[in-house]
Amino acid sequence: MTTKHCGTRGVWGWGLLFAGVAALLTGCQTTGNDEAEAEIERWNVPFEPATYISRLHQLDARHPMLFNPVSTAVWVSSEAAELKMQEEGGLGELDPVAAQVTNNFHVFELHLVSAFQDTSMAADVVDLRGVQLYLETPDGQRISPAQHLRAGSREEQPEGALRRFRRTNIVVFPRHSLWMDELTLDAVYPAVRLVLEAHSSEFYFEWPAVARPGIEQRPPTAEEQRWLQRLGYNEFVDRLRVLGGMFH
Q1: Which of 39-43, 95-99, 177-181, 187-191 has the weakest average pLDDT?
Q2: Which residues are CB-neighbours of 165 under 8 A, at least 6 positions away?
Q3: Is residue 176 within 8 Å of residue 103, measured between CB atoms?
């Protein structure tokens, strides 16, 4: 479900969204006692990220080291899933479940790391326990996840006097609004954020849009390829099978 809010952060500091979008206003505005929320004109064209991966950014954080900066998110589109398959020697079409999920949802792998001084908090946040998670668009929409799946087991190792925890999570978000026949993420947006809030601290991953909607995405860089393979195709598909019942 998509909701809108008037947050204290205000509008993202991106400047103009696109040269072709005239008189574009975002976020919350106040004129006298009247508040009006401006709408971005929607193209009804799917948002396409220009890159598969994003590093963690810190926004407002009471605990700035709650997540380690090496934490990385992967946007697993159908094309990215095919790259996973090809890397493992697979040929032909995607597994039907993987195809259905990536065609009906926005799928993200979150490779989270924490070596926070409070080990119980560190272990919880890499599992996304007690973490509010949502996609955020420049016009103030917050899109809640449809499902959260954990992949593999939580890794733990010493790091000096602390403990480092690592976990891969798969999070899926709806492609279409629950109440209206429109895309949740439209190509009009110049970028999209995946926000994590926990313990009075806020972090986000961010993906810029491709230069022009519908153009073929460039081949992945070596770094993107490494992250795409961090969670292999077979394990990725196995986890998505949990969602298979949503299509029957």
Answers
A1: 39-43
A2: 113, 114, 115, 119, 122, 123, 126, 154, 155, 156
A3: no
Give dist(CA 136, CA 140) in Å, integer: 7
* Orientation angle between helical segments 78-87 and 96-104, nearest 10 degrees: 150
User: Is 65 in a helix, a strand, or coil?
Assistant: coil
Which pair of tokens denotes residue 77? 């589109």
Cα distances (Å, whole numbers) of residue 79 to 13, 84, 108, 165, 208: 30, 9, 13, 30, 17
pTM of the model: 0.82
In this structure, what are the phi and psi dihedrals at residue 135, rounded to the nearest 5 degrees? -85, 140
Tokens of 222: 């070596």
pLDDT at 17 over 60: no
How far apart CA 151 and CA 167 sit, in angstroms, is: 8
Which residue type occupies 216? E
> Is pLDDT larger for residue 214 or for residue 19?
214
**Helical (H) or strand (E) element with 100:** helix 96-104
Place of tokens 């992945």: 220
Residues in the chain: 248
C-alpha span between 182 and 219 (Å, rounded):
29
Residue type, 181: D
Supply 188's token pair: 């009009």
Rounded to 5 degrees, what are φ and ψ at 245?
A: -65, -15
Residue burial 181-193, b: 16+ Cβ < 10 Å; e: rest: eebbbbbbbbbbb
Q: What is the largest CA-CA distance in the chain?
A: 63
